[in-house]
Amino acid sequence: MPRLRDLDLDRHLADPALKQEFVTPMFDLIAPRYDAFTRLFSYGMDRQWKRDLIRRVVALAPPAATVLDLACGTGDLAFGVARAMPHSHVTGLDASPQMIALARERKPGVVGAPEFVVADMAAIVRPDSSVDVITAGYGFRNTPDHRLALREAARVLRPGGVMVTLDFYRPESALWRALLIGYLRAAGNIVGWLWHREPVAYGYIAPSIAAFVSYRTFAADLSAAGFEVVYIDVHLFGGVAIHVAVKHS
């Protein structure tokens, strides 16, 4: 497998056919330190954002919900939802085998611990309208085609079902966009080199945000995929947002 630094990042981000070839090995590499990185770069705010996401799920979902956590990583959200909704059935999906391996190794400490499966969130092996709730933390930005993945989420979600997502978005302000992306690029490259000798491992986040959409455009994409956006919680001046969406009946 080629080193990440030998791949053309801009080319892989621009081409949906190539993006997953970069993203999956990158997440396999950073999996052991992924959660630490997320908390470090958000100055600890990631914990509160995820608590807010789970709170929204609990408020809207039936107690015994069938839940899919897309791009689940090492299982933060999946375990959080399972703790908050002990009668639910939670399954975490991720394209990175190493992420899934680490999620399975975590001590759950909850009744009805989540299942974890290596899977593509743009091709979910579930029947139509078979899921009550979908969650996704930093997931849609990393798919080759987030609009395709949104349509797939809408397919498996039952009418009236809820999807709650947390992600980084491309800030609409040119000045703030330059500052945020510049910081993430520089700091990510440094941490990537210190932790893995692969600067692009964490430096990736900056160009991935630059190549993504704004939180407002993502809301429009949700609507186009068959959802009604009922709430948006914006952070970091549009750099991060939680979207709460309900599938049309």
Topology, pairings included?
Layout: H1 9-14, H2 16-30, H3 34-41, H4 45-60, E1 66-70, H5 76-84, E2 89-94, H6 97-105, E3 115-118, E4 131-137, H7 146-156, E5 157-168, H8 174-196, H9 200-203, H10 205-210, H11 215-224, E6 227-235, E7 240-247
Parallel strand pairs: 1-2, 1-4, 2-3, 4-5
Antiparallel strand pairs: 5-7, 6-7
Helix pairs in contact: 4-5
CATH homology-level superfamily? Vaccinia Virus protein VP39
Q: What share of the residues lie within helices?
A: 40-55%
**Number of structural units classed as domains:** 1
Question: What percent of residues are in strands?
Answer: 15-25%
Shape: globular
What does the model show?
The protein is an alpha/beta fold and 249 residues long. The chain has one domain (4-26, 45-167, 214-247): Rossmann fold (3-Layer(aba) Sandwich). It contains 11 helices and 7 strands. The protein has helices at residues 9-14, 16-30, 34-41, 45-60, 76-84, 97-105, 146-156, 174-196, 200-203, 205-210, 215-224; strands at 66-70, 89-94, 115-118, 131-137, 157-168, 227-235, 240-247. Helix 7 (146-156) links the parallel strand 4 and strand 5. Helix 4 packs across helix 5. The protein is globular, with a radius of gyration of 17 Å. The mean pLDDT is 89.
Tags for this entry?
7 strands; 249 residues; alpha/beta; Rossmann fold
Please provide a brief summary of the model:
By secondary structure, the protein is α/β, with parallel strands linked by helices. The chain is 47% helix and 20% strand. It has helices at residues 9-14, 16-30, 34-41, 45-60, 76-84, 97-105, 146-156, 174-196, 200-203, 205-210, 215-224, and strands at residues 66-70, 89-94, 115-118, 131-137, 157-168, 227-235, 240-247.
